[in-house]
Amino acid sequence: MSIYSPLENSFHVPWVLQAALFSGLLLIVAGLAVRRRLATGDPTLPDEGVSLRNMLEVITEYLAGLAEMTMGVEYRRWFPIVGTIFLFVLLCNVMGLIPFLPGATSDVNTTTAWAIISFLVYNVVGIQRHGWKYIYQFMGPSILNWKIGGRHFHVRLLAPIFLPLEIVLHFARILTLSVRLLANMFADHTVVAVWISMVPIVVPAVFLGLGLLVAVLQAFVFSLLTMIYIGQALEEPH
Questions:
Q1: Which of 45, 135, 148, 155 is most buried by a 10 A CB count?
Q2: Closest Cα partner for 94 from 229, 209, 4?
Q3: Domain span including residue 178
Q4: Partners of 153 in the beta sheet?
């Protein structure tokens, strides 16, 4: 039983779709609230105490620094998608810790959808940067370098071996991203739910704290891997 059950039973709207839309709506409202706060005050001065704006600025600053290290000087171009992934996954993970409010990341459709988005983004980045030469990243190292007519030719003798393996491994990233997030959050939410049902006082607080830590870590890992994949796609093949 969850808050999504009435719509699911009456109008056959899947709970995961409701949860995803609800999470997206919360992020939009939070973004508009922060934007309004910045417009009405001095954007260079932080709010006093703990506020939504301060928390989002701390998260954004940390992720931006990490993005610059992993994706290079062009990180600003791709950082919005990474930040969106982090905030959405984090919010869904945390929602799953609240009784009767399952998060969308507890469903394989959500985790797979974000994994596919991550996969498409970093491959588009690689194609935009290198064009058709992006395929070189899947063909192994350049063993021989020939200079003919003023042009350099890189001979990749191991390409017949590397190419099929690299293609399979890259598509496997969709599976690993999806399953890692789904399995960890399913286990995390299940443990918390079991303890709340068995011992509703004191003890569940410990597991809620651990659950919150897992929720943050899994959102961080998902977004970090996306940044790493984008950084690799931007590199020149050797």
A1: 135
A2: 209
A3: 5-234
A4: 146
